[in-house]
From TrEMBL:
Gene Ontology MF, one: transposase activity
Stated name of the protein: IS200/IS605 family transposase
Domain Transposase IS200-like: 12-132
Biological process annotations from GO: DNA transposition
Length: 136
């Protein structure tokens, strides 16, 4: 677990997210060429904005899975905004033919799915808190 901890100036943390987002109306436009370019974009955005992409994959040509490590100063809302906003614009610039297959030219669905990935189970956290309150 020690290798997962990231040290910042004012905090030490291990914050990980699994994020999933899809193409608007689930159009199957994420072929291998688009996926390769999208993977490069996602890595570039993460480097510029200060978070880490542990794993990225397009699935069934219509949605993306992303495993992210992030500092506490970046909200997941902001991270997803960066990823979907920048990739959407740049993908449509690089592959203009995609726009013809989309409804109103919008690439990504407005919603996304996110869950935190924990190093400690919910039960362990409850036991820790209960133990701490009994110690004092």
């Amino acid at each position: 677990m020690e290798e997962n901890i990231i040290y910042y100036r004012t905090s030490t943390c291990n914050i990980k997210y699994h994020v999933v987002w899809s193409v608007k109306h689930r159009h199957k436009i994420l072929d291998k060429e688009v996926e390769m370019y999208l993977n490069e974009l996602v890595q570039q955005i993460a480097n510029e904005k200060g978070f880490i992409i542990q794993f990225f994959e397009c699935v069934d040509s219509d949605y993306c899975n992303c495993f992210i490590t992030a500092p506490p100063k970046l909200s997941i809302t902001m991270i997803v905004k960066y990823l979907k906003g920048i990739t959407g614009r740049k993908l449509l610039e690089q592959f203009p033919e995609i726009r013809d297959r989309l409804w109103h030219g919008e690439l990504w669905n407005h919603s996304y799915y996110c869950e935190t990935i924990g190093a400690v189970s919910e039960e362990n956290i409850k036991q820790y808190i209960e133990h701490q309150s009994k110690s004092y």
